[in-house]
Amino acid sequence: MNTSKINTLTRIISCVFFAYIYVGQVNSESFHIIIPADVKQDYLRFLDGRDPLSIHDFDSKHARRDVVEVVLLEQALSLGGNQDSYKILTGTSTATNTHRLEVGSVEIIGTSVWKSMFSDQSKILFSSAMIENGRFVSGLYTSPHNQHMLSVKTKQDLKDKSAISSRMWSVDWKTLPTLNLSKIWHTDQWKKMVEMVNNQQVDFLIAPFQSSSDLALVINGVRLIPVPGVKVIFHGTRHFAVSKTAKNGEKLLEYINNGISQLQAQNMIEKAYNQAGFYNHQVKDWQQLND
């Protein structure tokens, strides 16, 4: 065989080889789950190299509602019959994540959502409820140095206080005005919220209670604590959201719902939320500030 033919054959083999690799890479990720960057960070710390499907004990300093929900979603998909591979992506904001779901560039948001977060619900499929109405209880998280905020005991004490949240968090945004605050700040960036409260530019943010004994919320080295003795309760149910635009959306929803039913039968969802501090007995008798 002459040199020209050998070179041609080599190029053909190379093309076939790289085409095989390329196809393999594409097929190895059949769908995508998107979560906030800080959740991904704590999720990896929580796993600590473990297979998420093997986890039955959620007691960890890195466990919080968002983190255990990612694990519960993965377990639901597996129990429900999914055998396709997936990749967990990170989004920069709630607005980004919801938009990507609506257009179908990702298939699932990996943490639970309020249905009202979506202006066009016709593009979204919602799973069975992960959190039932009235069970989403949160604290008023502030800087440990903000004694003005830490002295709050009643709703009346909030009249000269400020809070920060996101308009995309529809239930939070609807709840905050009922607290008669002096000002409500908006940002889509969770990191920015934490920074502004830590710097005392804003008095507090609303967040679920944490699993630590002092209920402290620690994000990127910043530690916030709940105002003791008071809480707010959000009304509505929370669900996993699946893109209706995605070609496999209906099938993914079926897997998730089948899996949620099995997790509920095993009491795994209740256990996970309890161990993550989200269902928290420490605040059972704290005063509810909103109606």
Can you walk through the features of this model?
By secondary structure, this protein is α/β, with parallel strands linked by helices. The protein folds into two domains: 27-133 and 237-282, D-Maltodextrin-Binding Protein, domain 2 (3-Layer(aba) Sandwich), CATH 3.40.190.10; 136-234, Periplasmic binding protein-like II (D-Maltodextrin-Binding Protein, domain 2, 3-Layer(aba) Sandwich). It is built from nine helices and 13 strands. It has helices at 3-27, 37-47, 65-80, 94-103, 147-150, 170-175, 190-198, 249-265, 268-275, and strands at 31-36, 86-91, 108-114, 124-126, 136-142, 162-165, 183-186, 204-208, 217-219, 222-226, 230-234, 238-243, 287-288. A hairpin with a 2-residue loop joins β9 and β10. α2 (37-47) crosses α3, α3 crosses α8 (249-265) and α3 packs antiparallel against α9. It is globular and about 55 Å long. It starts with a helix and ends with a strand.
- Summed over residues and divided by their number, the pLDDT gives a mean of 90
Q: Structural class of the secondary structure composition?
A: alpha/beta
CATH level 4 superfamily of the largest domain: Periplasmic binding protein-like II
Helix content: 25-40%
Radius of gyration: 22 Å
Itemize the secondary structure elements and their pairings.
Layout: H1 3-27, E1 31-36, H2 37-47, H3 65-80, E2 86-91, H4 94-103, E3 108-114, E4 124-126, E5 136-142, H5 147-150, E6 162-165, H6 170-175, E7 183-186, H7 190-198, E8 204-208, E9 217-219, E10 222-226, E11 230-234, E12 238-243, H8 249-265, H9 268-275, E13 287-288
Parallel strand pairs: 1-2, 1-3, 6-7, 6-8, 11-13
Antiparallel strand pairs: 3-12, 4-12, 5-8, 5-10, 5-11, 9-10
Helix pairs in contact: 2-3, 3-8, 3-9
